[in-house]
Design a protein that fits this description.
The complex is a heterodimer of chains A (about 230) and B (about 210).
Chain A lengths: L9 H4 L8 E4 L9 H9 L5 E4 L11 H4 L4 E6 L6 H8 L4 E4 L2 H12 L5 E3 L13 E4 L2 E6 L4 E12 L4 E2 L8 H7 E12 L18 E4 L8 H5 L2
Chain B lengths: L3 H10 L7 E4 L18 E4 L3 E5 L19 E8 L2 H9 L5 E5 L2 E3 L4 E2 L14 H7 L2 E5 L11 E2 L14 E3 L3 E6 L2 E7 L5 H6 L6 E2 L1 H4 L1
Parallel strand pairs in B: 1-2, 1-5, 5-8, 6-9, 8-10, 12-13
Antiparallel strand pairs in B: 2-3, 3-4, 6-7, 10-11, 11-12
The chains are: A alpha/beta (about 230), B alpha/beta (about 210).
């Protein structure tokens, strides 16, 4: 403490992953998923992991690289269509998948991140995804109650951080990363560029460093995007 | 007859008008920009956190600037980036003028089924439920029948629903239908089709618009 310097490296954060943990991961189709921290997760050898994130990535991209190893027991996501292995594991009963409407999933994460106890919505009413959810009736109208989603550890990707962990993101690689950074009990940010405190304009900071525990410099993207393998 | 997907996308492009904020789903809707008049001035929204995306860049694609399918895009003047909750706030709060979604089934009262075929395809719902709920106008695009000839415009959806009573217009390669509380009305017959072709391939009952009768 004292210096507020949170900069560390992959080796130092590896022990933070543990068997049976709930892991929140940033990214949308792998865009904005921290590549080095996914490798740390894989190399840590942990199993029975509960995953929460937007999607299952691709089998070779983002969290998909971990999902295919069958070391996750559950996944809360909005879709898994880009990772057929995830679909197969779900069908085979090896991965329990809970689908949530994308924006509702994000709000559930945000709800945890801002210290609230969930919210009411009409999204999903009358559908499979609304089944088994508590119903609250207010002034004669029915709403579904959506609970907050937190996790033991959050892994996010940012364009820039200062040593305190103030985060700035990169275009559509921002997506759910700010919410995940806020919601996890412990958040590790993998970043492209680390600067000294005072070097970021306070107006441009998207996630204040109070939400970030560790900052790790990235080794860069180490997978081929779908458009690199199939053309654009 | 050309590729039905292109016929549908070309007709759907006429629904996109200058001044609109528009979200296009994956599948056939994503083909719409190819058929837009270049003078059409719209902001395209994508769920992954961008309002105002433009065409695929011809060179130097940026992995951190993509659409919801993960493919590189460019941005137009006035574009903005935001996180996923802001993106869906825009959707739920009625700031999307037009959403065009691919579909598996639509019922005569506008129920939409487009996210799961139980036992076969379980990709997940993505943002479809919220687009169906929150967009000011929702148009469903689909081929008129399944590959085996089974109609997809039905009196009651047999597939699990995305949302109830949300579709305002259906465009297929055979027809354009409007949906209001009274039910389904045939608005246009696509070139090469007849009303009886459409009757034979549509399970739901429908009215014929006055303008078509005229």
């Amino acid at each position: 403490m004292g210096s507020f310097n949170k900069v560390t490296d992959y080796q130092a954060v590896k022990p933070l992953f543990f068997d049976g943990m709930t892991l929140l991961f940033g990214g949308f189709g792998g865009v904005g998923t921290p590549p080095g921290l996914v490798d740390c997760l894989i190399e840590s050898g942990v199993k029975d992991v509960h995953l929460i994130g937007n999607d299952a990535g691709f089998p070779w991209i983002g969290i998909g690289k971990f999902v295919v190893l069958k070391r996750a027991v559950s996944l809360v996501a909005s879709h898994i269509g880009s990772n057929p292995v995830a679909g197969q594991l779900m069908t085979d009963g090896e991965l329990q998948v809970e689908f949530a409407p994308q924006g509702i999933l994000n709000e559930r994460i945000r709800s945890a991140g801002v210290g609230l106890n969930g919210f009411l919505t009409e999204i999903g009413k009358g559908t499979l995804l609304g089944e088994n959810k508590p119903i609250v009736t207010l002034k004669g109208r029915e709403y579904l109650y959506e609970s907050p989603l937190s996790g033991d550890l959050g892994i996010v990707y940012a364009k820039k951080a200062d040593t305190f962990g103030n985060l700035v993101f990169d275009k559509t690689a921002r997506n759910n990363n700010p919410l995940i950074a806020m919601a996890a009990k412990t958040t590790i940010a993998e970043v492209e560029e680390i600067v000294e405190m005072g070097a970021l304009d306070p107006e441009e900071i998207i996630v204040p460093g109070a939400f970030v525990k560790h900052v790790v410099p990235t080794k860069g993207i180490n997978w081929k995007w779908i458009w690199e393998t199939q053309g654009t | 007859m050309g590729d039905p997907r292109h016929i549908i996308a070309k007709r759907a492009a006429r629904e996109v008008r200058s001044g609109m904020i528009v979200n296009l789903g994956i599948g056939i809707p994503s083909l719409i920009p190819d058929f837009l008049d270049p003078s059409t001035n719209v902001f395209f929204h994508t769920e992954n956190g961008l309002l105002g995306f433009g065409p695929t860049p011809s060179e130097n694609p940026d992995w951190a600037l993509s659409n919801a399918a993960g493919y590189p895009v460019s941005i137009v003047k006035g574009a903005s980036y935001f996180d996923s909750t802001v993106s869906f706030g825009m959707i739920r709060n009625g700031r999307i003028d037009l959403a065009v979604l691919g579909s598996l089934q639509v019922s005569r009262c506008g129920d939409l089924a487009n996210w799961i075929v139980p036992g076969k395809r379980v990709p997940g719902v993505g943002g479809a439920m919220e687009l169906a709920f929150g967009a000011k106008r929702l148009i469903a695009l689909m081929q008129h029948c399944e590959k085996n000839g089974k109609p997809k415009i039905v009196s009651t959806c047999t597939l699990p629903l995305t949302a109830t009573a949300c579709v305002k217009r259906i465009i297929t390669e055979m027809a354009v239908f409007d949906i209001d509380p009274g039910g389904l009305t045939l608005m246009e017959v696509m070139p090469g089709c007849t009303v009886s072709d459409i009757r034979n391939n549509t399970e739901a009952a429908f009215e014929i618009s006055e303008q078509l009768k005229g």
